[in-house]
Amino acid sequence: MFRRKRKLDDFSAEIEAHLKLETERLQNEGLSYEQARAAAHRAFGNVTKAQERFYESGRWLWFDHLCQDTRFALRMLRKSPCFTAVAVLTLALGIGANTAIFSVVDAVILRPLPFKNSSRIVAIEGYYARRPVLKPALHFEWADWAKGTKTLEDISDYEDGEVNLAGETQAARVRAAEVSENFFYLLGVQPIRGRTFAAKEESTQPSVAILSASFWREHYNAAPDIVGKTIELNGKPFTVIGILPEGFNFPSKTRIWLPLPTNLDEEMFGGNAFMANQIARLRSDFTIGQAQSELEVIEQREDPAMYKYQRSQGANPIEISSLHTQLTGNTRFPMLMLFGAAGFVLLIACADVANLLVARSAGRSREVAIRVALGANRLRLLRLFLCESTLLAGLGGGLGLVLAVWSVQFARLVIP
């Protein structure tokens, strides 16, 4: 079944040998060479038709026709370099812009956050997180209140900023975050080396730190013995206790994580604990609206005067939204608008190329007429033109993907 089939030349040689033997036999019977040759051909039949049947029996005709149409389409495109260049560049710009913008929109808006059950992680905002009146460790009291709720499984605080790293050769300004001890548990992140923070390390003077994988690789050459060593941040020693997985940098491209201190005077960023951000994990049986209503009841019970004042000012004491919505809220609408505009650019590019093909086909009427006169049917002509269009689309799409890759790499540099 899978043996190599006979070549057409071998079959033609066999026919010729048969005709030669028949001609010699007829010559021996007294016929001249011309008469014997003609009689042998009449007895055998149409040689060309026999060769065509043999050719068709051993091949996929549709594939042969496709190869022929492809070779002809390539010759025609090479014959018209200006038309080919304009059509390919038009498609490349449309496809490249559309693909690049969709890649950014997908990464920022459509794709879920890279955390465990990220759809259940919510951000909490309210006057307690922004209240200017100093009250020691207010965010810890808030966490204690939330532990008794039915809608939230856990709650965590974090605050981000920059610290000075004293290196062996030169100092560096590094993005860091102070987080509650349950911060990594809430997000479902496990270190690749060492451990995360323990409850006892969330103290008045924290002295431990966790590094990101990229920071560990760039500043310490991925030294396997980094856990247990000491680094200096803002002039204070911190012991490295863990390395987080590659790609984790929440919040705001953080590279070093520190325990959130209970003493406001020990904060690394010069702020205060009331500016700390709060995230929580929503229980599976409840909605964000139910959680917000429950926390508002807690607010009203704990500080009725402030609750009444906030309501009189037309402000909501509590605002709960998904963490994904909070992180992308300011960019969602502009990105969707940009993606829609890119889609229209692609439609315009396709329409322009279609017009170019129509104008070009008007100048090929003589070619089409000759093909029809030679026996080409409409299906064969349609397949030929489709082959040319597919080649243009393939070339434009390939170049567009290259432009998209370059555009996405550029976007990563300029978009936070």
Q: How would you describe the overall organization of this protein?
A:
There is one protein chain. The protein has 416 residues and is α+β, with helices and mostly antiparallel strands. The protein has helices spanning 8-28, 33-44, 47-57, 61-79, 81-110, 127-130, 138-147, 183-187, 213-220, 288-302, 304-312, 323-328, 332-362, 365-373, 378-414; strands at residues 121-126, 152-166, 172-179, 193-194, 208-211, 230-233, 236-243, 256-259, 277-282, 318-322. A 6-stranded mixed barrel has the order 2-3-8-5-7-6. α1 packs across α2 (33-44) and α5 runs antiparallel to α13 (332-362). Mean pLDDT is 78; it is low at 128-138.
Topology:
Elements: H1 8-28, H2 33-44, H3 47-57, H4 61-79, H5 81-110, E1 121-126, H6 127-130, H7 138-147, E2 152-166, E3 172-179, H8 183-187, E4 193-194, E5 208-211, H9 213-220, E6 230-233, E7 236-243, E8 256-259, E9 277-282, H10 288-302, H11 304-312, E10 318-322, H12 323-328, H13 332-362, H14 365-373, H15 378-414
Parallel strand pairs: 3-8, 5-7
Antiparallel strand pairs: 1-9, 1-10, 2-3, 2-6, 2-9, 4-7, 5-8, 6-7
Helix pairs in contact: 1-2, 1-3, 4-15, 5-13, 5-15, 10-11
